[in-house]
Design brief:
By secondary structure, the chain is an alpha/beta fold. It contains 9 helices and 20 strands.
Amino acid sequence: MFPEIDVVCGIPRGGVLPANIIATRLARPCNTPDLLERGECWWTSSTFVDNNRHYYGNDFTVKMNFSKAKILLVDDTSFNPLGTLERVKQRLLTKFPKATIYKSSVYAMSNTKKHLDFYCKVISRNHWFEKDFLIRKITGTVAADMDGFLCRDPRPEEVLDDNLYLKFINEATPYMIPYYRLDYVVTGRLERYRAITEMWLAAHGVKYGTLIMQPPEVAMVREGTDHVLFKSNFLSKNNVGFYIESSQRQSEAIYKRSRVQTMCVDPMQLFGATNIGYEYHPSFQGYKNLEHPVESNVELGNINKPNAHPNYLFP
C-alpha cells in the first residue's frame, strides 16, 4: 500500500522530472532538497489566503512546514545503497529529525532494490540512459552524423537547389549538440563544403576531432550518393565504438554493414542491441501497458566501450 505523502522531493537533475510527474499524479507539492531545507515547495503559481481562495502571485514557491512531513524522495537511478538517495535522506533528517522520508527511484539495481521503499524496475548495474549520449561519452571513440543530428536535416528543395543549399549549410538551426568532444563528425556532405561546414561547427560550439566528408572523387553531386556505404566503411576501418545517426533507414543499414552500434536519434533506437531483460517491482505485477520494445532495455557490446544498456526514463 502506497503511504500518504505530503511532498515529493526530486533529486536534481535526473530525479526532478519523475518527481514532478509523481507529484502531479498524487496532487501534492513538489520540490528539491535545497528548497525543502528552506521550507519551500512548488505548489501553484498562486498565494493562498485565509478564506482558501487564492490569487496569482509573483512567487514560484510557497512556504510549507516540513518538520513532521511525509517526504517521498525521488531519483532516476539507485546505483549504490549508500549513494545519493541515502546521503540526501540523512541530510534532510538532520534538518527535520521528525520527518518520515521514503526513498524511491525509477530504476534500481539488484544490489539496491532492498534499500529502497519504492522503485519501478530493476535493471543492469552497467547502464546508460538515452540522454547520456548527449551528456557524457559512453565509449572510447564516438562518431556522429551532422545533418539531422547536429543540425536540422535539409528539405528536399534545399538539396536540389545550389543557392538554397548554401543558405541551409550557412544558417542551419542547431538540433542536438553533445556536451563532450566527438572524435569524428562523419557526414555525407561533399568535401567542397568543408570550409563552410567547419565555420558552422565552430560557431555553434561543436567539439570534435576530425570532420569526415565525402571526397571529391566519390561524389560530385549532393543527391544520389551512397551515404550508408561511405559511413559504414569509415566506421569499420577506424575502430569507432559508437555512431549517432539521424536516419532510421541508414542507421539500420550502417549497423548491418559495419557492426558498429548505431543510435538513431529520430525514434531513439539503438541498432545492435541485445535484450537483457528487467524486473519490475512486485507492485506492478499484472499491470497493463508495461511491455517495451527491445530497444528500451538493451546492452552495448564490449568492443572499445563499457558494457552498458540504455533505458527510456519511464516504464
